[in-house]
Amino acid sequence: MKSFIKIFIFLFLIIFIIANKGEVGEIFNYKKIYSELFEKIESQETGFSEESLFSKSDFPKTDKENVLEISKLGIEVPIIFGESESIEDMEKALDSGVAHYPSSDLPGEEGRSLILGHSAPFGWPKINYEWVFSDLNNLEKGNEVSVHFEGRRYSYIVQDKYILEKGEEIPSQTQSTSELVLISCWPPGKDLKRLAVTAVLALPSE
Q1: pLDDT tens digits, 174-191
Q2: What is the predicted pLDDT for the residue at 57?
Q3: Confidence band (pLDDT; 50, 70, 90) for 31?
Q4: How far apart are CA 199 and CA 206, in angstroms?
Q5: Least confident of 106-110, 118-122, 174-178
Q6: Which CATH class is domain 29-201?
Q7: Is 197's pLDDT higher than 70?
Q8: DSSP tag of 190
Q9: Are strands 111-116 and 98-100 parallel, antiparallel or unpaired?
Q10: Which of 2, 132, 165, 191 has a 20 to 30 A CA-CA distance from 61?
Q11: Mean pLDDT, rounded, for 36-48
Q12: Which of 165, 185, 184 is nearest to 23 (CA)?
């Protein structure tokens, strides 16, 4: 039975790729898709205060390590923290989960933390995390996005989402806060525009 399923999936992929040759080529041309985005991110400044508004020890503990969790989308995916911003290293990170952009701030810190993820067309097999942000546009204001990092769970509340032209800046939230931005291609799997979902850290109760 398992052999039959593997054969079926293989044949499905072959047929899908042949039928959508042009679109598939765009989906896997990640160097083209992300290179402009990386260059634009490097040129942006966060503009946040250096004075801390909270202590990390105030946030709840967690046994999960480096995980992005979005209950509404049914997502629980590894966050890959790389040191290099090269396109090749970022592509490798995206094959293993979602990727934290190295020059952006870390989760739970004041500033802007950028997390990139792949998207794919409807029906695309769930392999190598190519699908992980396919439903990102379904997030709405008030939805929760959790980041498990360094033994703490940080709860971010979605504020807005933007469909951006390539090279267009991501709008910032209020200064002196911790912001999370989830980024993917739009529409899913195509190198036409960018989808950015912004969320602000819910500060621990006093």
Answers
A1: 555 899 999 999 999 888
A2: 86
A3: very low
A4: 21
A5: 174-178
A6: mainly beta
A7: yes
A8: -
A9: antiparallel
A10: 132
A11: 49
A12: 185
Question: Of 189, 195, 170, nearest to 104 (Cα)?
Answer: 170
Q: Specify the DSSP element, H or E, that contains 81.
A: strand 75-81
pTM tops 0.85: no
Contact 198, 161 (CB under 8 A): yes
Check: CB of residue 48 under 8 Å from CB of residue 110. Answer: yes
- Contact present, 67 and 79 (Cβ < 8 Å): yes
Q: Look at the chain and count its residues.
A: 206
Give CA angle at 76 (70, 82), nearest 5°: 105
Nearest CA to 44 out of 104, 99, 95 is that of 104
Domain parsing of the chain, residue ranges = 29-201
Confirm if 128 and 88 have CB atoms less than 8 A apart.
no
Residue 119 has which token pair? 């998207």
Q: Nearest CA to 44 among 147, 127, 113, 139?
A: 113
Compute the distance between CA of residue 78 and CA of residue 185 in angstroms, rounded to an integer. 19
Task: From 56, 87, 84, select the one nearest 152 (Cα to Cα).
Answer: 56
> Per the omega criterion (within 30 degrees of 0), is the bond before 187 cis?
yes
Classify residue 74 by its DSSP letter. Answer: T
Kindly state the tokens that stand for 18: 């042949």
Query: Which residues are within 8 A (CB) of 53 and not within 5 positions of it... i.e. 6 or more apart?
Result: 110, 176, 177, 203
